[in-house]
Design goal:
By secondary structure, the protein is mostly helical. It contains eight helices and two strands, in the order H-E-E-H-H-H-H-H-H-H. Helix 3 packs across helix 4, helix 3 packs across helix 7 and helix 7 packs antiparallel against helix 8.
Length: 174
């Protein structure tokens, strides 16, 4: 993740002309001129869940549907031997709230997540956990089972699983 430091004068600009930051598992070295490109590519704006061309925000999910999905998901995670140890056992309700608020925001609803936690920074927030292929696949399997419990058309489920697959692969760090 790049650190942003205001450039007060030309000497500071020259001294800071190269930055190194993490994108997934890659270290990127870039000239400062390219930063706006990388920022837009890897740090969507707070309105990223509300684009007119975004199939996720056009699914018209209700808060109650998202709440039920997240509740179904965490009921499976709590008893899963691979994923359960990654979650704070004294804060299951907090974990549910964070995922629920993030998904509501991402699917075009309330920005409560942003107000409480700021930019999602999913890579940074998940970096302390070892997330390999097994963890990614298990997370996707449990999310798919939770999704199956909702009575949604297959087209909506397919778009959601596509979204979850992209996020799960992005978070993989091993």
């Amino acid at each position: 993740m790049a650190a942003y430091v205001p450039i007060n004068n030309f000497a500071n600009f020259l001294a800071m002309s190269w930055l190194v930051f993490r994108v997934g598992t890659l270290l990127v070295v870039t000239d400062i001129v390219a930063i706006p490109f990388f920022y837009i590519l890897f740090n969507p704006s707070p309105s990223c869940g509300t684009s007119m061309n975004d199939p996720i925000s056009n699914l018209d999910f209700s808060d109650s549907e998202i709440t039920l999905l997240v509740s179904n998901f965490y009921s499976l995670v709590k008893v899963d031997e691979l994923l359960s140890p990654m979650y704070p056992h004294d804060d299951w309700a907090g974990a549910e709230t964070r995922l629920r608020d993030f998904l509501i925001y991402r699917f075009g609803g309330s920005d409560r997540y942003i107000q409480r936690r700021g930019h999602p920074r999913l890579g940074m927030r998940h970096a302390p956990f070892v997330i390999g292929i097994n963890e990614r696949d298990r997370w996707l399997s449990l999310m798919e089972k939770a999704l199956e419990k909702l009575e949604l058309p297959a087209s909506r489920k397919n778009v959601l699983m596509g979204f979850f697959m992209q996020v799960a692969e992005f978070l993989r760090n091993e």
